[in-house]
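We include this case.
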Amino acid sequence: MMSDKPIGRWIKRTADIVISAMALIVFAPVMLLVAGAIRIRMGSPVIFVQKRPGLNGQAFSLYKFRTMMLATHVNGRALTTAERTGRLGKLLRKLSLDELPQLWNVFRGDMSLIGPRPLLMEYLDRYSPEQMRRHDVRPGITGLAQVSGRNNLEWARRFELDVWYVDNWSLWLDLRIVLMTFRKVFSGEGVAVPGLTKFQGESSVDRQESRD
């Protein structure tokens, strides 16, 4: 477990701070362009803020770029999810650009680059004691479940992967997840972690669970 590896925890947190700070600088022009596009196409607000459970289940404010428009048309007609998302929202989600503001969450210490994805606060009372252990580490921008099937995972299987990550964490595992995340983003294909096939099987629950 990560709690048994104090040096590894220190290296992980240091890497989170350094990499997130550098990424915020490097991606600043991209984030400005995305913010401008959202402001023009969807209006304000540009940033979507929502409370999510972090380390030990403590709530924090998670930041994302807004990807959905208002729930109703100007004439009062309710819009479908597809209509609310539109082409811009779909593009931001496909390229994971809506996740970029979470680099600030990582820098602040709310999140890590790698870890179980933070779900909704109201899900907490639905978890079993075993599933709650996914909160023994900081949540991540990407994680084992995301590179092991993403939208093809059942909820129970996703939680198995999250707890497996907590119990088997290592810097090497984080590096593998980072590399596989890049592959998944650029290829759009499902990815499985070598040696963990027994866990394969909703994932990116955050993709469907509380879009703005």
Q: What stands out?
A: The helical segments are 6-26, 28-41, 81-94, 102-108, 129-132, 155-168, 171-187, 205-209.
